[in-house]
Amino acid sequence: MVDIANLNKPFKKGDIIIYALSVVLIVLLFFTVGIVSKDNYSGFQVLIDGEVAFIYNFEDGSSTVSKDFTQNVIKESETKYRIQTDYGFNEIEINNTQKTVKVIDSDCGPSKECMRTTTNNGVIICAPHRLVIKFNQISDGTIKIG
Amino acid sequence: MNGKRVAFIGVMSALSAIMFMVESLFPPLFVPGAKLGLGNVFILLTLIYMGYGSALITLAVKCLVTAIFSGFSTLLYSLPSGLVSLTVSFILLNFSKHISIVAISATSAVVNNLIQNLIFALVTDTFDVLLYSPYLALLGVIAGVLTGLVTLLILRNLSSFVIKKFDLKQNLEEHSGTFKKKHV
User: Fold this and answer.
1) Do A2 and B96 touch (CB under 8 A)?
2) What is the pLDDT of residues B80-107, one digit of tens each?
3) Chain A residues with CB inside 8 Å of B132's CB?
4) In this complex, is the C-beta atom of B2 within 8 Å of any C-beta atom belonging to chain A?
5) Per-residue three-class SS string for chain A
């Protein structure tokens, strides 16, 4: 068991190893997965459980609902879509002039992380509903359409 | 397990769950899902004062209680990551002569963040979300250091009281394998 008297210092020599390893890990992760770019996006995809359910193109405003997901994607207006999964719904709003999309409503928990995520992050995640909105870039960047 | 211990675990679980829910009302820190994780302070305190078993109970109660409010599908992320990061803290605490509680907290936070990210990538089969992993690791270090400092402050100011009130000395010795009973 822990000797509590041992735990009264904010820094010990061994910490250097921990922090050094953390820095190495973070640098390695940056190199392996790349850095999220904030360039303009040409469109986005909505993925439910990893499968493409909905594709939208900002350039010409065209949209495609995948065959298996016609029940899941409900068009409410030109710019508003409701995505229904087995776990709940997310309502998205598309802004074609700014080339952005955001989640405006969801029946998940109180935190509603998805509604606070902006497109600049590259991916919008709704973890409870297993929903991902990912963006494809015009220029050759780190995020590519799958 | 005596009554005082049960009471301690109950209070710590409640504080942890409340902290978690209060935090979820604030916007995330730069990356979706990123939190300071002050609720984990109480799980770490339970681990230090009462041992691994009690900390596991605290973690389970916290996850279940928060799941009532944030949806049971979140258990898929919170339980495994909590379990692994708690185990990592438990292992590192054995080296507490050389590693501070702040560094232990930081490691635990990084592990927690990366595992949640990985679980999400696996269950949704969307590996694009791993784009967040370097940011989550970085924020994990920062959040872990901050919560570690909070834990340190509580340890410094509360330890003598808790040890006395909760007969912890005896518990500590039992856990160290000496099984000495000072009084029957």
Assistant:
1) yes
2) 999 999 999 999 999 999 999 999 999 9
3) 36, 121, 123, 125
4) no
5) CCCHHHHCCCCCCCHHHHHHHHHHHHHHHHHHHCCCCCCCEEEEEEEECCEEEEEEECCCCCEEECHHHCCCEEECCCCEEEEEECCEEEEEEEECCCCEEEEEEECCCCCCHHHHCCHHHCEEEECCCCEEEEEEECCCCCCCCC
